[in-house]
Amino acid sequence: MENVVELKNVTKNFKGFSVNNMDLQVKQGFVTGFIGANGAGKSTTIKMMMNLLRPDAGEVKLFGMDYKTHEKAIKERIGFVYDGNVFFEGMNLKDIKHIVGPAYKHWDDTIFYQYAEQFGLPLNKAIKNFSKGMQMKASLVIALSHNAELIIMDEPTSGLDPIFRRELMDLLQELMMDESRTIFFSTHITTDLDRIADHIAFIQSGELMFNQPIDEIDENYALVKGGKELLDRDTEQAFVHVHRAPTGFEALTDNIGAVKKTFGDSVVIERATLEDIMYYLKGDKHHV
Q1: I want to staple 47 with a disulfide (CB 3.0 to 4.6 A). Which of 52, 191, 241, 272 is the partner?
Q2: Taking the CB of residue 118, how many other CB atoms lie within 10 A of it?
Q3: pLDDT tens figures, 80-125
Q4: Which keywords does the record carry (predicted)?
Q5: Are 172 and 31 in contact (CB under 8 A)?
């Protein structure tokens, strides 16, 4: 099984917003970063993956199965990590283990206690007294304790300090030593993905702009800087988007080879970060 998640022509309409004809695949054994601005449709897409929302059209499959006939089997194999508390606030971790554990065939108490200790989580302290980072870690402990094959993380680092975010990235790298595990990581903080992501899916205003290996993004996308005199109707075809300034231009390209062929050494070519790509593709829905 190559794809753990498959969305085919998925559409979900709301008043004033929609996710449109989304085709998204999440490959087994890799970390896929799901990026986009707040309100782009990341959480809506994840809710459809989790069967918390049903699409108006299209097909959602996880592990090759659909929720209509295999909901329990699917949910046995996925874990969800949110950016806050998803448990009853008066409970402690031991309470949660006693309630959640029996719901899963593959729950493992040994793994639960191992990760609770590794993450420094008190077992008898009410969840409501956990910091935001500790609440996120608690969700991750639960996901790992039932041996989830797919871990879906919805903005887990939002509001966390940079040190804690870096510690989380190190932890996820360790988890991916198990090559059967897959992580789908939604975030608008693109720097969190620089060290761990294998693939990047970018959503903009409900439309999937691209879903590519991060190596291909690095190879193809770049920022190009040069003098305004270099721009005309033909040379602009090498760019996805151009920003003009009084002293020159800065542009995003997804074809470095075409830029070099067109401009030679008369421009400066720099690596484009994911944040650069998000910024310059803003509003360019035609470029998918």
Answers
A1: 52
A2: 13
A3: 987 666 677 788 999 999 999 998 999 999 999 999 998 899 999 9
A4: ATP-binding, Nucleotide-binding, Transport
A5: yes
Stated pTM of the model: 0.88
Question: For residue 90, how far is the Cα from the chain centroid?
Answer: 30
CA–CA gap between residue 5 and residue 42 (Å, rounded): 15
